[in-house]
Amino acid sequence: MLKFNALLNQPELKALNTLSLDTHIKETQAAQKIWEAIAPDNLAQFSHASSIKNQQFTISADNNAVAAKIKLFIPSLLIKLEKQECEVTSIRVKVQVKSTPQTKPKTIKKLSAQAANDINKLAKKLSGTALGDALSRLATKTD
Predict the structure, then answer these.
(1) Angle at which helices 113-125 and 130-139 pack, to 10 degrees?
(2) Residue 5: inside a domain, yes or no?
(3) Is there a contact between 139 and 112 (Cβ–Cβ < 8 Å)?
(4) What are phi and psi of 86, to 5 degrees?
(5) Which of 96, 54, 88, 47 is nearest to 70 (CA)?
(6) pLDDT at 74 over 90
(7) Bridge pairing between strands 47-53 and 56-61
(8) Which residues make Cβ contacts (< 8 Å) with residue 52, sequence separation at least 6?
(9) What is the model's pLDDT at position 90?
């Protein structure tokens, strides 16, 4: 295993990987600019361009609904690509689900002392009713 790691860490191989990575990043950025120019606004925010290789434009959609919508637009998208002088003959749509972002904990909103006092007065007037009981519980949520 050590010999294999030593082989991978050779300077020539590292330089090759760095160059290919830079090239890949530039190609992806160029594809994304083209996608932003031709894609409908409502779909562009839920998808991104992956690559343009072998005259095939690859788009990654965030979910199945967006992918289906993009597939409906493929003929018109190909025409727009042709007008931009891109040599693309097909569009491939892949679904790449993003992980859900962590939700922020909800902040518990509390009533001011004056509001709680007013709600409490109203709850006493309506005591014995469902609304009066609900107002009593609400009045306990004070600063």
Answers:
(1) 160
(2) no
(3) no
(4) -95, 135
(5) 47
(6) yes
(7) antiparallel
(8) 27, 30, 31, 34, 58, 86, 88
(9) 93
Residues 91 and 114 in one domain: no
- First-to-last alpha carbon distance for the chain, in angstroms, is 63
pTM beyond 0.70: the answer is no
Report the number of distinct structural domains present in the chain: 2
The string of pLDDT tens digits covering residues 97-143 is: 777 767 788 887 888 888 888 988 999 998 889 999 998 888 887 76
Cα–Cα distance between 132 and 126 in angstroms, integer?
5
Q: List C-alpha distances in Å: 23 to 8, 49, 88.
A: 20, 15, 19
Most confident of 6-10, 44-48, 96-100: 44-48
Residues linked to residue 93 through DSSP beta bridges, in sequence order: 59
| Spatial separation of the C-alpha atoms in residues 52 and 33, rounded to whole Å | 12
Which tokens in the block code for residue 51?
A: 């690559």
Residue type, 108: I
Give SS3 for 48: strand
Rounded Cα–Cα distance for residues 93 and 67 (Å): 6
Query: Are 77 and 25 in a shared domain?
Result: yes
Domain span at residue 123 reads 105-143
